[in-house]
Structures are given as C-alpha cells and as structure tokens.
Amino acid sequence: MEPLSLLRWIVLPPVALIVIALAVANRHVVSFSLDPFNAQAPALSLEIPLAAIVLISLFIGILIGGFAAWSQAKIKIARRKAPPPMGRAKSTPTNLPAATL
Questions:
Q1: What residues make up the domain containing 23?
Q2: Number of domains observed in the structure of the chain
C-alpha cells in the first residue's frame, strides 16, 4: 500500500465523521441573502439549512482546488521534460596553461 493511500485512509474517515456530525447538528433553516445593501427585504434570498450552505461551500472549494491542481499539470510536465538548467560558473577556471615569462 502506498503512503498516500494509507494517509487517505487515516485522515478521510475522521474528517467525514466530523462533517456528518456538523451537518446533523446544524439542520436549522437560515436565510442566505446575496444582497448586502438591503437586509430587511433582500432581492435574492434563500431559506436553506445551515449544513447545506457549509457543504455546498466545501464542495465548491474542492472543485476550485482540483481545477487549479489539474491546470498546473501541463506546467509540471513541461518542466519535467525541459533540459536541466545550466549550473553556475566556477569562480576559478581550471586547466589553464601555465604562465610564461
């Protein structure tokens, strides 16, 4: 079993349990408003459970992070295929002919 897979099995179940526990504990309906200027009568408002807001936000964050990692794959492949950078020049050259007077 590779280390990343093992780490996933160690971390994922406790995180999933915590997310499920928070979702069950926060089933209260809240007003989700997208109008910051008129709090009394917002133009766009939804009445949804708080857990739904948290889970949807988490899902959107995972999608954005996955897309960012996926879009960098081309850059990583190009760097891997590129020739290695030239090393720094030595401060004192070697194999020079001896000085003659």
A1: 9-80
A2: 1
